[in-house]
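Researcher: Here's a chain I'd like modeled. Treat it as a single chain, no partners, no ligands.
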Amino acid sequence: MRYVFTLFALFIAFGANAQVTQEIFESFKLQERREVFYYIPEDYDQEKKYPLVIVLDAEHLFEQVVANSKYYSTFHGMPDMIVVGINQLEKSVRLDDCAYDENGLPSEKGKEFFEFLGMELIPYLDLNYNTAPFKMIVGYDITANFINYWLYKENSLFNAYISISPTLAPGMETNVPARLADHNKRIFYQLIMETEKNDYSASIEAMNKSIKAIEKETLFYYYDEYAGADHISIAAYGIGRAFDNIFGMFKPISPKEYRQQILTSEEPVFQYLENKYNGIKDLFGLQKPVELNDIMAIYAGIRKKEDYESLKPLSELCKTEFMGTMLGFYFEGEYYEQMGEPKKALKTFEKAFGMDEIDFLTKEMALEKIDALKADFGY
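Model: Modeled as a single isolated chain. Structure tokens:
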């Protein structure tokens, strides 16, 4: 039996109504109570799914992760996330939790802590909240080493790892690359390092070199080194950059992406949009609403590449995603116009004229199309 005793709720300066709850989690595996922090988005919706982030060394990292999560979800298209932090500050708790033996494997207490997270805390969260399949874990120093043990499992519990200046256990510099190479599921692995050298720099560099050499489509590896940071200050660096890397797919199509990927692709332009949103659903377990920015980028690409066949599926998508607006019928009217079907084009532009304006599309534009078609074909 597992009990949670709520102590108090905090309101912190991450935005209006951003609630962080601190609880005491009674663990059967550890045979002790552990202090846990929960951040649940203020607009939490029972109908939505939320990626889960587990933060070790919560007393140092939790607020940074929550702040970055809120910022990126508000301004950069990243999904809202549930963030859970485990406090390990008191006495030698973090050292005991993450201790390893001479072979680099978790000690007896480390095994218990591993099971506490994977068999108690995360199942509890999955049961009580609408968590998405996508899970991330964040660690620093010795806890950054500890998160690697989930890679040793045949099926990694986590999809994304943020490792901040790890103090590597023996053999970890070869075991981590080997396990990353062996996994078939998509895994994001972010290593954040300071430039200042320490006792673990050589093994970390060896690990970095080996991971970079892995050629696997399912592995997304990022290494960021920060000049001027030392082993203490590095904990404040790089979390935002890591989110930017891991959740890059969520960001709206940028001008660079438009030039380098959409315009250079041999596939139909609409296929790029379909692949992007299907990829989000497959990887993160989330159905992201299609952004108007992305619709406009695809429309621009269609016109630039004269791929007018793509107008049809784009129009059908817009009828669903932007229901009641001109968007879907206007694009469909253009499709029929380009396919040499003026009667269908005329009727479709007339439908668009009766709907709400959106973005650059105005009723005047639809009317111009209607008048031009009537003049050209004598309707």
